[in-house]
Amino acid sequence: MSSTHTGFKHLPIVDVSGLFSDDIDRRLATARELDRAAREAGFFYVTGHQVSRGQQGALIEQAKRFFAAGHDWKMRYYIGNSSAHRGYVPEGEEVFAGGKRDRKEAFDTGRELPADDPDVIAGTPMLGSNSWPEQPGFREAVGGYYEASFELGRALFRGFSLALGLPEQHFERYLRKPPSQLRLIHYPLDPSAEDRPGIGAHTDYECFTILLPTAPGLEVMNGRGEWIDAPPVGNAFVVNIGDMLEVWTGGTYVATSHRVRKVREERYSFPLFFACDYHTVVAPLPQFATPEAVAKYPPVSAGDHLYAQTAQSFTYLKARLERGELVLPDGSKALASFGQQARYASAEQDAEG
């Protein structure tokens, strides 16, 4: 593995407008910038993304209206009632490594699949239909933003393909119906909160994440194990590498650990967790398949990994596991198995051994 993950103090900024150009030289130049940011930080801002401020504003407005509604009404769309893991996530439902519950609520959506889709009929986890609330304009605004940000994700994947020396459309074959989820997150006003870690440190389980932040609070772990602030920057998204790109690159791109600080102010956040198709088998690409990488990153089903991590994080799924109603896929990893924290834990074990 040749990761150059550094002790960065600020996130790099990449103008990705070149990815939408007809000029291959511009696309290649942008790909080189993406590659540098992914290797050195695994977390970076992107500008020139072509997701309009109008689409962003409509999403934020609908989220504010939804979360301002009463608890009983929101629970009509409880995620535990969905066969596709879509809907309302009440405060305390999600638990990260170490058993930490987070004071936030959320609403999860994904790509709509019809009831007669073979994967839906087969009961493939994370795939199916959304639980749209009866709120005027919600479906149109959220669905429109989802499609716009998904197109950005496809463009980023084309950039990563070029960066990794692959045909530009290499990853497109894995994006037919991925379980990519858009999450609307609300951090309620908490006057008693101290400025301290809130959402537990974690990596994201998918390929990468495209985040629309609206307020400070995000922190990123650099290559020295230091926590670095990642405040919102203008009309920029925050992109971070997830577990599956770490596997594909044999650890050259690191799934960067991050957390959200617990502060008093009310705020909102909107990550799109960009996944590949559920049945995609992910292993180090040939150019990264060193003996060390192959040993550390055995082939993994992208969907099984996502589902296993999700099942260990959500209270309603953990309860089903305990009752024997669900079984984790074979070879499932524990939470916090990727990123810098996993590397530090492995180094400590080697030292103790």
Automatic annotation (TrEMBL):
Pfam family, any one:
2OG-FeII_Oxy
Q: Which PROSITE patterns match?
A: FE2OG_OXY (PS51471)
Q: Which UniProt keywords apply?
A: Iron, Metal-binding, Oxidoreductase
Q: Name one GO molecular function term.
A: metal ion binding
Keyword Ribonucleoprotein found: no
Q: Where is the Fe2OG dioxygenase domain?
A: 178-276
Q: Which InterPro entries match?
A: DIOX_N (IPR026992), IPNS-like_FE2OG_OXY (IPR044861), IPNS-like_sf (IPR027443), Oxoglu/Fe-dep_dioxygenase_dom (IPR005123)
Q: Return the PANTHER family for the record.
A: 2OG-FE(II) OXYGENASE FAMILY, PUTATIVE (AFU_ORTHOLOGUE AFUA_2G00750)-RELATED (PTHR10209:SF885), OXIDOREDUCTASE, 2OG-FE II OXYGENASE FAMILY PROTEIN (PTHR10209)
Q: Which family does it belong to?
A: Belongs to the iron/ascorbate-dependent oxidoreductase family.
- The protein's name in its UniProt record: 2OG-Fe(II) oxygenase superfamily
